[in-house]
Amino acid sequence: MSVVVVTAILALLASLGFSKYTHGNYTFNYAYPPQYTNARYWLQQLKGPVNLTEAELATFDGSHGKPIYVAVNGSVYDVSASPDLYGPGGSYAFFSGKDGARAYITGCFSTDLTHDLRGVPKEEWIELVAWKLFYETHAKYFKVGTVHHPPIDPRIPPPAPCKTMLAVLEA
Protein backbone atom coordinates (compact mmCIF):
# COMPACT_ATOMS: atom_id res chain seq x y z
CA MET A 1 0.00 0.00 0.00
CA SER A 2 1.15 3.47 -0.70
CA VAL A 3 1.86 6.01 2.00
CA VAL A 4 -1.14 8.07 0.86
CA VAL A 5 -3.57 5.16 1.31
CA VAL A 6 -2.16 4.26 4.73
CA THR A 7 -2.35 7.92 5.81
CA ALA A 8 -5.95 8.17 4.59
CA ILE A 9 -6.96 5.02 6.47
CA LEU A 10 -5.28 6.24 9.66
CA ALA A 11 -6.98 9.64 9.32
CA LEU A 12 -10.35 7.93 8.85
CA LEU A 13 -9.85 5.75 11.92
CA ALA A 14 -8.71 8.74 13.98
CA SER A 15 -11.76 10.70 12.85
CA LEU A 16 -14.12 7.88 13.80
CA GLY A 17 -12.38 7.48 17.16
CA PHE A 18 -12.69 11.20 17.85
CA SER A 19 -16.38 11.08 16.96
CA LYS A 20 -16.95 8.11 19.28
CA TYR A 21 -15.13 9.98 22.07
CA THR A 22 -17.04 13.26 21.62
CA HIS A 23 -20.53 12.01 20.66
CA GLY A 24 -20.65 8.40 21.74
CA ASN A 25 -21.22 7.15 18.21
CA TYR A 26 -19.29 6.68 14.99
CA THR A 27 -20.27 9.59 12.75
CA PHE A 28 -18.50 12.42 11.00
CA ASN A 29 -20.76 15.23 12.22
CA TYR A 30 -18.86 16.52 15.24
CA ALA A 31 -20.70 19.84 15.46
CA TYR A 32 -24.24 18.46 15.40
CA PRO A 33 -26.28 16.81 18.14
CA PRO A 34 -26.56 13.04 17.61
CA GLN A 35 -30.33 13.29 17.05
CA TYR A 36 -29.61 14.97 13.72
CA THR A 37 -28.62 11.60 12.27
CA ASN A 38 -31.90 9.99 13.41
CA ALA A 39 -34.54 9.70 10.66
CA ARG A 40 -37.38 9.50 13.23
CA TYR A 41 -36.21 12.84 14.66
CA TRP A 42 -36.51 14.53 11.25
CA LEU A 43 -39.92 13.00 10.54
CA GLN A 44 -41.13 14.37 13.88
CA GLN A 45 -39.67 17.80 13.07
CA LEU A 46 -41.68 17.84 9.83
CA LYS A 47 -44.87 16.94 11.70
CA GLY A 48 -44.34 19.58 14.37
CA PRO A 49 -44.69 19.24 18.13
CA VAL A 50 -47.45 17.06 19.53
CA ASN A 51 -49.85 18.30 22.19
CA LEU A 52 -51.34 15.38 24.04
CA THR A 53 -53.85 14.80 26.78
CA GLU A 54 -53.05 12.20 29.44
CA ALA A 55 -55.39 9.74 27.70
CA GLU A 56 -53.67 10.28 24.34
CA LEU A 57 -50.22 9.91 25.91
CA ALA A 58 -51.28 6.59 27.44
CA THR A 59 -51.68 5.11 23.94
CA PHE A 60 -47.98 5.65 23.18
CA ASP A 61 -46.71 2.72 25.23
CA GLY A 62 -45.20 0.69 22.39
CA SER A 63 -48.23 -1.47 21.75
CA HIS A 64 -50.37 -1.38 18.62
CA GLY A 65 -47.44 -0.25 16.45
CA LYS A 66 -47.27 3.25 17.94
CA PRO A 67 -44.05 4.95 19.06
CA ILE A 68 -43.03 4.83 22.71
CA TYR A 69 -43.30 8.13 24.57
CA VAL A 70 -42.35 9.05 28.13
CA ALA A 71 -43.07 12.40 29.75
CA VAL A 72 -41.15 14.33 32.38
CA ASN A 73 -43.05 17.21 33.98
CA GLY A 74 -45.06 17.94 30.85
CA SER A 75 -42.31 17.40 28.24
CA VAL A 76 -42.84 14.34 26.02
CA TYR A 77 -39.91 12.35 24.59
CA ASP A 78 -39.77 9.63 21.95
CA VAL A 79 -37.83 6.65 23.34
CA SER A 80 -38.86 4.21 20.60
CA ALA A 81 -35.19 3.51 19.87
CA SER A 82 -35.07 1.40 23.06
CA PRO A 83 -38.10 -0.92 22.93
CA ASP A 84 -36.24 -3.46 25.06
CA LEU A 85 -36.17 -0.88 27.89
CA TYR A 86 -39.38 1.12 27.43
CA GLY A 87 -41.59 -1.21 25.39
CA PRO A 88 -44.00 -3.82 26.74
CA GLY A 89 -42.12 -6.08 29.16
CA GLY A 90 -39.11 -3.74 29.31
CA SER A 91 -37.30 -2.71 32.46
CA TYR A 92 -38.70 0.84 32.30
CA ALA A 93 -42.03 0.06 30.63
CA PHE A 94 -43.82 1.57 33.63
CA PHE A 95 -42.76 5.05 32.38
CA SER A 96 -44.17 4.51 28.88
CA GLY A 97 -47.27 6.49 28.05
CA LYS A 98 -47.14 8.40 31.34
CA ASP A 99 -45.78 11.54 32.93
CA GLY A 100 -43.93 10.01 35.86
CA ALA A 101 -42.32 13.23 37.10
CA ARG A 102 -42.82 12.31 40.76
CA ALA A 103 -41.28 8.84 40.28
CA TYR A 104 -38.21 10.36 38.59
CA ILE A 105 -37.61 12.23 41.84
CA THR A 106 -38.67 9.67 44.45
CA GLY A 107 -37.64 6.44 42.76
CA CYS A 108 -41.00 4.90 43.74
CA PHE A 109 -42.00 3.36 40.44
CA SER A 110 -45.02 1.43 41.70
CA THR A 111 -46.82 4.29 43.49
CA ASP A 112 -45.50 7.61 42.15
CA LEU A 113 -46.10 7.43 38.39
CA THR A 114 -47.81 10.82 38.36
CA HIS A 115 -47.06 14.42 37.48
CA ASP A 116 -48.35 15.54 40.90
CA LEU A 117 -45.36 17.02 42.73
CA ARG A 118 -47.25 18.26 45.78
CA GLY A 119 -45.44 17.22 48.94
CA VAL A 120 -42.08 16.76 47.20
CA PRO A 121 -39.55 19.28 48.57
CA LYS A 122 -38.73 21.93 45.95
CA GLU A 123 -34.99 21.29 46.33
CA GLU A 124 -35.62 17.76 45.02
CA TRP A 125 -37.17 19.10 41.80
CA ILE A 126 -33.67 19.58 40.35
CA GLU A 127 -33.84 15.87 39.52
CA LEU A 128 -36.41 16.70 36.85
CA VAL A 129 -33.96 19.07 35.18
CA ALA A 130 -31.37 16.29 35.10
CA TRP A 131 -33.83 13.81 33.57
CA LYS A 132 -35.04 16.30 30.97
CA LEU A 133 -31.42 16.98 30.05
CA PHE A 134 -30.82 13.24 29.79
CA TYR A 135 -33.64 12.76 27.29
CA GLU A 136 -32.93 15.96 25.34
CA THR A 137 -29.23 15.19 24.83
CA HIS A 138 -29.47 11.43 24.37
CA ALA A 139 -28.26 10.19 20.98
CA LYS A 140 -31.42 8.14 20.38
CA TYR A 141 -34.19 10.05 22.18
CA PHE A 142 -35.74 13.41 21.37
CA LYS A 143 -38.50 15.74 22.49
CA VAL A 144 -41.74 15.46 20.53
CA GLY A 145 -44.04 17.84 22.40
CA THR A 146 -46.01 18.30 25.59
CA VAL A 147 -48.72 16.63 27.62
CA HIS A 148 -51.44 18.80 29.09
CA HIS A 149 -52.66 17.71 32.51
CA PRO A 150 -56.01 18.67 33.96
CA PRO A 151 -55.74 20.90 37.02
CA ILE A 152 -55.17 19.02 40.27
CA ASP A 153 -58.14 19.33 42.60
CA PRO A 154 -56.74 21.00 45.76
CA ARG A 155 -59.30 19.08 47.84
CA ILE A 156 -57.58 15.81 46.94
CA PRO A 157 -54.66 15.19 49.30
CA PRO A 158 -51.19 14.95 47.76
CA PRO A 159 -49.75 11.48 47.23
CA ALA A 160 -48.33 10.01 50.42
CA PRO A 161 -44.53 9.97 50.56
CA CYS A 162 -43.12 6.59 49.61
CA LYS A 163 -40.45 4.83 51.66
CA THR A 164 -37.64 6.11 49.43
CA MET A 165 -38.84 9.70 49.80
CA LEU A 166 -39.35 9.31 53.56
CA ALA A 167 -35.70 8.25 53.87
CA VAL A 168 -34.63 11.41 52.01
CA LEU A 169 -36.84 13.63 54.17
CA GLU A 170 -35.53 12.07 57.39
CA ALA A 171 -31.86 12.39 56.37
Automatic annotation (TrEMBL):
Record flagged with keyword Glycosyltransferase: no
Organism this protein belongs to: Taphrina deformans (strain PYCC 5710 / ATCC 11124 / CBS 356.35 / IMI 108563 / JCM 9778 / NBRC 8474) (Peach leaf curl fungus)
One Pfam short name: Cyt-b5
Xref: SMART domains: Cyt-b5
Family to which the UniProt record says this protein belongs: Belongs to the cytochrome b5 family. MAPR subfamily.
Coiled coil start-end: none
Stored PANTHER family: CALCUTTA CUP-RELATED, MEMBRANE-ASSOCIATED PROGESTERONE RECEPTOR COMPONENT-RELATED
Annotated signal sequence range: 1-24
Domain Cytochrome b5 heme-binding: 52-148
GO CC annotations on file: endomembrane system; membrane
Name the UniProt record assigns to this protein: Cytochrome b5 heme-binding domain-containing protein
Keywords assigned: Signal
